Amino acid sequence: MRTIERKLTIPFVLWTLLALGLGFLLRYHNLDVRPFHHDESLHATYGLYYYTDAKNLFYHYDPMLHGPLLYNLLPWSYHFFGVSKWSARLLTMLFSLVPLIAPLFFRQKLGNRRTVEIILLLALSPSLIYWGRFLRHDLLMLAFTCTLVISTVLIHDWSRQLLFWCSLGLAFCVKENSYVHALLILIFLIYEYIISTKRSVEPYLSRIFPWFSSAPIPLFFGIVLAIASCAYFYSAGFVYPEGILDGLYRKSLSYWVQQHHQERISGPFSYSFLFLSWYEIPLLFLMVIYYIHNFFSSTLKTKFTYLLVILLGVLTHWGMEHHFSREFLSTWLKLKIPLDAYLFWIFLISGIGFTTKHLLDRRQDLALLSYSFFSLLFTYSYLGEKVPWLTMYFIVVGYIYFWIYIRQLIGRWPSSIAMVIFLSVNILLAIQINFLDSHQAQELISQVHTSKSYEDLSNSLAQELEQTHSSILALDSNTWPLTWFLYGKEGYVFNPDVSDASNYQHVLVDLPDLEWEQKLSSTHAREIIPLRYWWWPDFEKMNFKNYFWYLFTREGWNPNGQKFISHYYLRPTIEQ
Asked: What's the predicted TM-score (pTM) here?
């Protein structure tokens, strides 16, 4: 058996720097070129409110906009780098590098080669690159989750306790899914404790308690730091105390439970898997090999478990087709299309089965990775509101888990060939998605894309306001992302009670606009501008042909959606 290289060698350092450098460049290059997404403009502007007037325009916690930390950090980016799309995205881009650095802290366990390989897989992941260039809370959440895991391998009490509790406290200041992650971790620790004690293996809980109990002073300061950070950010520096309880439970939990049942952005249970398979082809391939190997290497008893999963899928599919318990299957299990009936049972039983198998084999590290991947994949597939950025959590864990498993299975040289193929596929897909077709209508990756034409119009209006005494009236859907470009500029008005709009040099309204056409046609010229595009798959009509056609061509099987606005601009007066 070949020994695992763990010494800090020059080749390892060079390969690590290359991997991290590629990850950084692909996230940094042309960071501000892609038009601002609707959500990005919201986040950037709320950070701008805080930056321009922290005393009066501080962030009042709103669960729809998530936790306060992002809006507290953005003003620092604006302060050091100026107010721009680039500086807004730079903040989350830097946080997106943390998952790439995290494997280095586990080098002694992984070995040099596997550490570099995992960093490369994460660095060149097409969707992780896309979200690393996107202004969202999830980049912060993912970073603090990584630092929390890193804290568990630190030796010194003070560094371990402070990093652990600081990461935990700040994670709760980022987004409400911190509750989901905390619950999933608790379930694993309890289950792992039950299995490990029966196998006479020291469980994680038995290791965790000594870490804390042996260092009471660092523990105390760590807990105080976590509580203080949550209280400080949710209360906007202790000037808005209501925000503490709002963020703790009063608004946060009730709002997102309601959103789960409301399904504002409704999609099938298989949505997350489809997203993963369209944007992370190497990860999908690793999963397929993983299942095939486990089936053929398993005992006869385990093979019957595979057959049971298929049988449950067939029965559930039959129930959906014959409207048997349709309300239960659709509303409570979130099963909408035939594929859901099979993936529901595959993910659920896989998570339990493979995690248990690793625990029985005394491989707690693989059990934790297996549980993390399948529990996150199942949870975010089950949640009612389907959004693509939630996939980044299980994509990170998936690359780590499946590569460790498959690499150990196939050996060094076959894994080297596979790695070259995987990285080639990922970098080509990453370039296409992030630089060539980053805002094309039928890219599902961010669901909605602001048009380049609308952003060009926004920039020209911003320049006009700075150079002249112009006036701009924005109504209906034009508030975002337009407000980001025009905020704080005199002459910009949005959504007022307008009796006469003819005095404004520019008026932006939604289509159709027959009423405004009658009011403004005599004084203003008109142009039609695309505001945003989107493509939401008609999942009911998806089949194997449509699935693979979109995979290779990025052409959807149903038309994309689009929204246009009317831009009225005052006709110049001609002096006689």
From this structure: 0.94
